[in-house]
Amino acid sequence: MYWREVSKCDAEARQIARPHYSRAKPDSAELGPPGQKIVLVGNDGQQLWGSHRPAPWVKEVKRMDGFDGHSCFIFRRTGGPLASATIREAVALTVKKWGAAPFITYVAIEKVRRKRDPGRCFIKAGFHKAGIRQKTKHGPMLRLEMGLFDVIACYQQP
Asked: Are 48 and 16 in contact (CB under 8 A)?
């Protein structure tokens, strides 16, 4: 297993996250939005993953985009194993802890290093393009979703 779970306030996780475009305050003491979080750091310290869901015990709290499921609020890779493989493992670990639900993430098209196409590692992991939000503080954001069938396949993968 590549990942180890850490606290949302873990110093190593915050250091890996610091240069990520999603960090509104790079030196804040906690990772992620309000709600429940799972924060994973790669055993080699080269990757970071954050899963999020609104507090399930408060039925009135919903995501602003209306999505009902889990989300990846941060993924950062500076090296280590293939990103698509570690993404699938992070999804599986989230399912193990919270149960199966669809997954969503957003990728800032203009903020990621130039590659063949933004979000490629998520697409290789089983996410699909679900649209683009044009007006955000990070510029255009690619919406990527992984359906329940693919989420369960991540969990069942040996």
From this structure: yes
For the chain, the domain total comes to 1
Residue 75's domain comprises: 3-156
Each residue's pLDDT tens digit, 61-104: 666 777 778 999 999 898 999 999 999 999 999 999 999 999 99
For residue 28 the two structure tokens come to 């804040």
Q: Would you state the structure tokens that stand for residue 156, as one six-digit string?
A: 């069942």
Instruction: Say which residues have a Cβ less than 8 Å from residue 61's Cβ, sequence separation at least 6.
Output: 35, 54, 55
Q: How far is CA 137 from CA 10, 24, 32, 34, 62, in A?
A: 26, 10, 16, 19, 21
44: CATH? 3.40.630.30
